[in-house]
Design a protein that fits this description.
Blueprint: E1 3-8, H1 12-24, E2 29-34, H2 37-46, E3 51-54, H3 63-73, E4 79-83, H4 88-96, E5 101-104, H5 111-189, H6 193-220, H7 223-227, H8 230-245, E6 248-254, H9 262-283, E7 287-294, E8 298-305, H10 321-332, E9 336-342, E10 346-354
Parallel strand pairs: 1-2, 1-3, 3-4, 4-5, 6-7
Antiparallel strand pairs: 7-8, 8-10, 9-10
Helix pairs in contact: 2-3, 5-6, 8-9, 9-10
Bound molecules: adenosine-5'-diphosphate and magnesium ion (MG).
Magnesium ion binds near residues 277, 278 and 322.
């Protein structure tokens, strides 16, 4: 395939010289020669060229203006000056402005290698851009997949919790009542105390199953989050954490009746749980301070512990799925997650998400 050249040149002989030189080196050329600004603009807007060669000064146009136009309209097409004379300073100036090279007509033998290098570089650049574009696209796809999985998971947890609560919870309560009544009747009617005692023990078993079912539902998705809101859920979770771990957990909520929509509440609550899990597993902390704060246009959740501090190289460890998950959750709400840790001073996790203006 011929090389499509747009050549800005007023001298016919010079234009031929350029074509012959390239063809002499085995580069087949299809040259469009232009001399004026109008023709140049029409040519680049209308045609697809592989390369632009340009003289420096022409009667009605000039190479620097051409370069300027080309940078704006077709920055991917390499631009080489082919000119009678050009001082070193000017040559450097043109390179700074985006020309790939300059070839003097007196040294025209260099033209073919200059053109080949320019084309090679342009194709490498476009490959790089393509690869970067594909990478960005797959990155975006992964992020939206992560967001989708998070919300699907949350929805599933809510449904399972509801099913268990409605189906098992009611059946167990009915069973408990029946067993209690039967135990009572046995004791009264037949005086069969042994069996009645055994049945009472069964009632205790059912009771502990009811407690376990409630706990499982709450672990799947605490009802408090849906009924009493984010602030109450955070306080409740902090209390549970303190009971379980023995680590003091102080919560500040400001304003007290803070509200967030359902997705934001879920995101912040899950970040809080994950952060507390990390405190328990890794920090050796004795105290956690958490703050949920609503400002005019964002909500901030901060969890600070006084433990060993998270090492900075772990922020980006590929298998730190806890931290990555927190970051992705914040991202789902167009927010961000900041991790601060210094050895000996503890770790602070801060999630900030934009909220509707008050
Ligand atoms: N509060 C914390 N204090 C100290 N180190 C922490 C804390 N939170 C996280 N880390 C460190 O960061 C690492 C990554 O955390 P995470 O992504 O949640 O993964 P995981 O908890 O599964 O190890 C942890 O293994 C731990 O070394
Ligand atoms: Mg973790």
């Amino acid at each position: 395939m011929s090389l499509r050249i747009l050549h800005i040149e007023d001298d016919k002989l010079d234009a031929e010289l350029v074509k012959e030189t390239l063809e002499g080196e085995g580069i087949a050329c299809d040259v469009s020669q232009v001399m004026s600004r109008n023709d140049f603009v029409t040519a680049i807007d209308g045609g697809s060229f592989d390369i632009i060669l340009s003289d420096f000064s022409l009667p009605d146009f000039d190479g620097l203006s051409a370069l300027d136009i080309a940078r704006k309209r077709c920055p991917d097409i390499p631009f080489i000056f082919v000119t009678g004379k050009m001082g070193e300073e000017l040559a450097i100036e043109t390179l700074k402005k985006g020309a790939i090279d300059y070839v003097l007509k007196t040294g025209i033998a260099r033209l073919a290698s200059s053109v080949q290098r320019a084309l090679r570089e342009a194709s490498e650049r476009s490959e790089r851009m393509k690869a970067a574009g594909e990478l960005k696209k797959s990155h975006e796809q992964l992020r939206s997949l992560a967001a989708h999985l998070q919300s699907a998971r949350e929805e599933e947890r809510t449904n399972i919790a509801r099913e268990i609560h409605d189906e098992l919870g009611q059946a167990l309560t009915a069973l408990k009542i029946d067993l209690s009544l039967m135990a009572e009747r046995l004791r009264k009617d037949n005086g069969n105390f042994a069996v009645a005692e055994q049945m009472k023990a069964e009632v205790d078993v059912v009771n502990s199953i009811i407690v376990a079912v409630k706990r499982i539902c709450t672990e799947l998705r605490p009802a408090i989050l849906d009924y009493l809101g984010l602030g109450a859920a955070i306080e409740w979770q902090a209390g549970e954490f303190q009971k379980k771990s023995g680590i003091e957990c102080e919560v500040t909520i400001n304003p007290e009746n803070i509200t967030a929509d359902k997705d934001q509440s879920t995101v912040l609550f899950r970040i809080f749980q994950e952060a507390l899990t990390n405190v328990l597993r890794h920090s050796k902390a004795t105290k956690v301070r958490a703050a949920l704060i609503r400002q005019a246009n964002f909500i901030m959740l901060e969890i600070a512990d006084n433990g060993v501090g998270i090492p900075e190289d772990l922020f980006i460890k590929t298998n730190s799925f806890g931290l990555l998950g927190m970051r992705e959750r914040a991202y789902i709400c167009n927010g961000e997650l900041r991790i601060n840790g210094s050895p000996g001073k503890g770790t602070t996790i801060t999630a900030i998400i934009p909220a509707d203006t008050l």
